[in-house]
Amino acid sequence: MDMLYNILIDPFVQMVDAPDFLIQVVWEGFVAGVLYALIALGFVLIYKASGVFNFAQGIMVVFAGLSLVGLHEKGVPAWLALILAIAIMAILAVCIEKFVMRPLVGQPDIILLMATIGMTYFLIGLGEVIFGGEPKQMITSELGLPTGSTAFEMGERGLVILQHIDIAAAVIALLMVGGLAVFFNRTRIGRALRAVADDHTAALSVGISLNQIWAIVWFAAGIVALATGIMWGARSDVSFALEIVALKALPVLILGGFTSIPGAIIGGLIIGIGEKVGEIYWGGLVGGGIESWLAYVIALIFLLFRPQGLFGEKIIERI
């Protein structure tokens, strides 16, 4: 009986008794969820263009962040380092298209997936050789990102503290998600991208350049990775551990749908807020650490009942 009370009643009693703390927890989850959505957006872009889950997106987040910080450590001014980091991601996109994707046109999806896994370990090795394996501090103030915090009083109900970097991260992530959603859903390139995802050979037959489309989407995914690396790095550090955080995009995609940009947003918020609330109010019942696995449990439940996700397309194949 006590166990049922601790699971079903006590957490909600705590929420009512301390609404300021609940708002703080939900806010932290919201920021994390928006950043998860931004990471997931990079996966969605590549999936739309190739129909394959890009296993390398996580290490692209790390590599982009390390490039920015590494250039600044070499004496390059912060904003010039940012421009050069964007150029590095553009060069990386062109190289991936020319040396990895172009030779694999028409190959089964599993071949493309294995190619992205190979790119992951190549970029890990390249990043360790160039930048070393130690965590690095993001150049937050040098880039003009806000620091400090603002406290909001809730009368007698307590205090809510919002970190300025979290507010900036949420705003920038939402603007990027919204801008890319409009670009890829309302433009000719967006329509061409969907055609490429459906059938590489058919897209080629109607004059769509796979080389151009793939270079564009990999560059867009690189820009998303750079923004994600900056924001996550500003909240913690830039290290290869961020690759594990980036893989949280997998349950986000399962919830929202692999081809849906709005789904990436909704899925990211569900995972971000869900794991924070679960860790704080139910984590003690299982010894803590809920944040490391709750997202995958939620994804498993969705796979059982709605494998295409909330906004994903249900694919029907005729035999």
TrEMBL record:
It holds the Pfam family BPD_transp_2. One of its GO terms (cellular component) is plasma membrane. It is found in: Cell membrane. The lineage of its organism: Bacteria, Pseudomonadati, Pseudomonadota, Alphaproteobacteria, Hyphomicrobiales. Keywords: Amino-acid transport, Cell membrane, Membrane, Transmembrane, Transmembrane helix, Transport. The keyword Transmembrane applies. The chain crosses the membrane at residues 21-45, 52-72, 78-99, 111-131, 161-184, 213-232, 252-273, 280-305. Belongs to the binding-protein-dependent transport system permease family. LivHM subfamily. It comes from Stappia indica. It is a multi-pass membrane protein. This is Amino acid/amide ABC transporter membrane protein 1, HAAT family.
